[in-house]
Amino acid sequence: MTLPRPFRALLPLLILAAGITGFLILRATAPESPPMEVAERVWRVDSEVVSPQTLSPALQLYGHVTTPRTANLRAAVEADVRDTPAEEGRMVAADDVLVRLDERETALQVMQREADLADIRAQITAERLRHVRDREALGHDEALLELTARNVDRARDLLARDAGSLSALDDARRAYEQQALAVNTRRLALEDFDARMAQLAAREQRAEAQLEDARLNLERTRVRAPFDGRIARLAVAPGDRVRVGDVLVTLFDARALEVRARIPALYLPMVRTALEAGETLTARGEIDRAEVRMELTRLAGEAPATGAGVEGLFRIVEGGEHAPLGRFLTVRLTLPEQADVIALPFEALYGTDRVYREEEGRMRALTVDRRGEWIDAEGRERVLVHSPGIRDGDRLVTTRLPNAVDGLRIETDVD
Q1: For residues 394 and 357, what is the distance between their CA atoms, to the nearest angstrom?
Q2: pTM for the full model?
Q3: Counting CB atoms within 10 angstroms of each CB, which of 37, 181, 311, 344 has the fewest?
């Protein structure tokens, strides 16, 4: 059966209208589903009930062994190294010979200086004898001057009476002038005696100083320890030629060892106040499994260019006598007692100044002041914090959460 043409044109529209009507009927008669509820996530954490206490905090620092008494013993003369009794790392006593230099060149200088001094002293003796002879000869010269003066008078008288010649008078005058010159020369020698003796005395003093310097250089061919200490470095060997100023041995005083460790700027006011009040701040460390006891004596006068804080200088009291210079060690500095501080696991501290208190199942942030570290009776290391907002009996979160924010929902185990 063939459908009429108008009906065939409307058939697709009738099918589409029937489909839409059926969809609307099914949607209207479908059952309603309840809305989905998104539950807030609860984080399970550990917590501790805290109580403010009075405790002595400690700081863990990293330092190295040093000393303010390090001597670089240098060559005072140019010579060959003859022997080196010193050995690196050995303990030596004051005045021990560490290096022997060849003394032959210096011994020859001593002999030359001794000869120079003997020559000057001989000149002084000869000058004194000459002075005595000049003083005795002056009387004879003055007597001869009187005789020549008489000869001049006699020759003049004879010439006036035509009994003498003019040449005889000239000879008499010449003899008088020569003798007068000799008398003046002798008197000048006597008058200059003190000046010549002063010059010779100055030359004698200079020669004595040069001789003493040569003897000192001879003594310096034996390089000795200036104090009890330990050899840090031996820079020469037998046969080496050393010049003046070359370093031979480096020696440090083992009784004046110190440890330099940088104290963070956060704790400097506390440390400086304790030092100014005369308190003794003790510290402990370990070198080669041996305990080292120290005391903080002072703070460095110059801050390092890199990093915050200032170096503290710790005097080694016990246990570090044989520590090598430059040895690194961990220093645990005990600070003065702090009141109203809380000891917490390090996991409870977020950043440097934030902890969280549990309030009605949520985390509430508190700002704290870090006061150092502390080791409890069980040997656990804890951080000490202080905050006026923490009260006795508060429960603080001790679990480190990566997404910790104020108001986060948590669940804790109740002790």
Answers
A1: 7
A2: 0.60
A3: 37
